[in-house]
Amino acid sequence: TPYTGKGGKGQALPSVTVDFQVVNGSSIAGFLLIDTDSNLPIGPLGPVVDLAATPNVSIQATTEPTEVGSVAFLLNDEARIENFLPYALGGDRRGAYRSVAFTEGPQTLTATPYEKKAGRGSTGASLTAEFEVIYGSVVERLELVNTKTNETIGPLTEGATIDLADPQMLHIGLVAITGPAEVGSVSFEIDGALIKTENQLPYSIAGDRNRGQRLNAFDFSPGNHTLVVRTFSQRGRQGIVGGTLTINYEVTFGAEVDQINIVNTGTGSVISSLDNATIDLQDPVFEQITVIAETTPAVVGSLVFYLDGQPIKTENFKPYAIAGDRNKGQQLFPKNFEVGEFELTVVPYSKPGGQGLMGAPKTITFNVVEGLAGEAASRLASVDPSVEQTTPMEELVVFPVPFSSSLQFALEANTEEELQMQLIDLSGRALITGTYKVVTGSNHLSLDVSRLYLPRGTYLVKIEGKYFGRHVIRVAKD
User: Fold this and answer.
1) Which residues in 341-375 are b (16+ Cβ under 10 Å) and which e?
2) CB 444 within 8 A of CB 393
3) Is 0.70 topped by the overall pTM?
4) Nearest-CA neighbor of 375 among 262, 472, 277, 275?
């Protein structure tokens, strides 16, 4: 409205009215997906963000013009305002983008430009984008590894059996191979219990040393188990769960003791099997001896020797000798035996010190006597009293086996003579002695032991004659 006088005084002249609108012409031009590790744009924000491909990301809003007062972000229900370039959803520190902790699933992002800082003043044109966040990593396979050599043994597959008796399995670990090769973290669960979480390569169930140069061996427990391995988008089992691999497997220890031998400690040569043998302490053959067990496989974690049920020796290295050795078996220590009848059990284990899984034990019996040297001792180890024994001159059958109150002898003699018969215990003590006259042809002899009240066990019958010779027969008492 104009006036005739100064300062809006005087007569008012005709007015002119103009309608106008003040607008904020700024706008959100688009969204860029940012790799916060490299601080570089990956490209325009698409319909899917796969954190397996790029685990640490942010989203930048580009504006028109390039710089505005501020930009307000609304991601689902969470709001954030950026006052300075770059306008990033996760913010920045001196231009270094900070990653956004996305949740899995559909996302809605809206960005709005403002005229002034802190989201004040007029607004420009907003932009809304809808996208989905996934974590497309997978556990490609599980590999068993020799932790001594770091060499791969082979894959652990569904239904596999891990036999710790296999020499390759003495020191084993397990690693997960993922796609992509590097993920946020990997967890290992066995039978529902969390065993290990690994944040860095290699993803080992028992961890590693020297930045992965040495894997730690894992203590596999016996039986059937279920192993579940999962990938995560962030360290410490955080973020989005990726691929899951489930494997059912069994752990066994198929080792067994094959032989238990009497060995000369001087030469290291095998004298004979200890199974059902008799050791005559007066026989020079048995002067310096030990007992060595042989296994399948040839090397196990350890062997434990039990004599009459009591552990007497644990051997962790070959040779598995009942009295031990020195210089890796070059010097065998002799074993001093007492007179008697013994039961020896040898048990293989998967770990040193009689620890870990137990394999198949072997139990044998043997006798130690004193004073049955030479021919008698050799016969003692071989004569079966239930089988007819033949000499160049006559035939002898001993019955019943086992005996109770008496021993009967059927003898075919080629000549008349007088025989002396003794029943002896394993200490060499004569329990009863009898003298019998035999005639040419068939003879039936009887040795009554009913008044001796003998305990159950093994005894020796010694028969001597001028023509008959000397025979020692082992018999069992029930």
Assistant:
1) bbebbbbbbbbeebebbebeebebebbbbbebbee
2) no
3) no
4) 472
CA distance 300 to 305: 14
Residue 398: which of 350, 443, 436, 365 has the closest Cα? 443
Tokens of 315: 């051997």
Quick check: 382 pLDDT over 60? no
DSSP 137: -
User: What digits encode the pLDDT tens for the residues 25-56?
Assistant: 899 999 999 999 999 999 999 999 999 999 89
What's the N-to-C CA distance of the chain in angstroms? 139
**Element housing 367 (H / E):** strand 362-369
For residue 456, the one-letter residue type is R
- The pLDDT mean for the chain works out to 90
Q: Longest C-alpha distance within the chain, in Å? A: 177
- At residue 286, the 3 state secondary structure works out as helix
The DSSP letter of residue 454 is P
Q: What angle do CA 198, 204, 207 make, to 5 degrees?
A: 75
Task: Report the C-alpha gap between 354 and 316 in whole angstroms.
Answer: 8
Task: Looking at mean pLDDT, say which of 3-7, 223-227, 266-270 comes out highest.
Answer: 223-227
Other Cβ atoms within 10 Å of 277 Cβ, number? 21
Number of residues written out for the chain: 478
User: Which distant-in-sequence residues (6+ apart) come within 8 Å of 468 by Cβ?
Assistant: 391, 393, 394, 413, 417, 419
The CA angle 384-390-391, to the nearest 5 degrees, is: 125
Q: What H or E segment, with its residue span, contains residue 28?
A: strand 27-35
Pairing of strands 238-252, 151-155: unpaired
Contact 215, 208 (CB under 8 A): yes
Beta strands in 45-137 (DSSP E): 48-50, 57-64, 70-75, 78-82, 87-88, 92-93, 96-97, 105-114, 127-134
